[in-house]
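Structure Section — protein described below
Tokens — whole-number codes for backbone shape
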Amino acid sequence: MLMPLSAQTSVQSTPYWWDDCDFPSLPVRPLSPTCDVVIVGGGYTGLSAAIELARAGRHVQLFDRQALGAAASSRNGGMASGSIRPSRRELIKRFGEERADGILLEGKTAREDLWRFMEEEKLDCDFFLSGLFDGAMTLEETGDLRRYADLLHRKLDIEAFAVDKGDVRKYIGTDLYVGGLVRKDIGGLQPAKLLAGMIRIAASTDAEIHENTAVLGSIDEAGGVRVRTERGEVFAKTLLVCTDGYTDGFDPWLRRRLVPVRSRIIATEPLGKSVMDRLMPARMMHGDQRKLSYYYRPSPDGSRILFGGRDGTTEGDPSAPTVHLQAELARLFPELAGVGLTHSWFGYVAMHRDMIPRIFTTGNTIYATGYCGSGVVWARWLGKKAALKVLDDREQARSAFDFDPAPKAVPFYSGRPWFIPIVYSMYERHDKKTLRRVKQR
């Protein structure tokens, strides 16, 4: 039986990751009236770009309206997947076969580049190359994942294979799935520690970091962009926007193209080694094929389960999404019905009409954004690629994600995602049909 959230008085609304991670304290610095590049957004993307540009000798100023560490880069699940939502078939239909294959190939390169970055910079992020198990609830989904495993192996030389029903419990202790997919190239990390490390690296360069300083707007002028902040104006040759799900009204044009969606994660109380051995024997990252996708993993120390999914709410911090995640956790692992929680928190991811990460340009402004819930790998990678684009290093900057025009604006949308509950109800109906089929097995 589920324990009502109201009875769990110790549930924290801050991320589990913050318990053992402190973000560097940065000095307040005066604004420089001119610079080479202004970066808006101090998450993985903005910091990656700042590091690359400052090390190349560019005068960089980075602005974030909050303290660095407050937004999505320290609130995510720490699953370093670099996944792409559309299938290869959908990508080919939208962008052509060459770009579709380029997008898939770049995921492998981006993951490997993140591993290299953490090793070279000596970042202790609790990283482990765990692999991922993706569950199938129907035979149709099993077939889809079998074909996808073949694609990964054949096109990308990734170690991946389908899992039959009889072998599911080698990877996850549930009867919900009738099959699945294992791929060995995906890992898990402590996302707040990665961010804290990147803040320290950026602060050690000549980049000027201005946290708690909102950008209010910008306008193209001859030779660059004039950026208006709450502490004054700055003129830069190039503006690099890296705000993703936390984009506000400073850029109404971008805001009409990015829809902020809440993603929530719950952390169970410590479960004990025998329970973890039974439920997550391979200690992998996990997901499945539902429209309202869920993602889950062991904590880095292997003591508890972190279980996440899209929140579906747009205001306040109601308890219903937490209770919903508790119910879905119990659906997956019935023995965890009523398990205590220690944390329940949310952050914003950005969805858009292309549904792939993107770099695009308008005037003297370059955008790197739109990670659709898979930002651990893509955000740092596209920040680096955008910086190389600013440096005019055409060979190194080349990316299958860098193309114009920008994603189209979302009709009847200007920043308030009024339609999210409607979309979620449609996805929920779809998933309920699938679950009915599961019960009939």
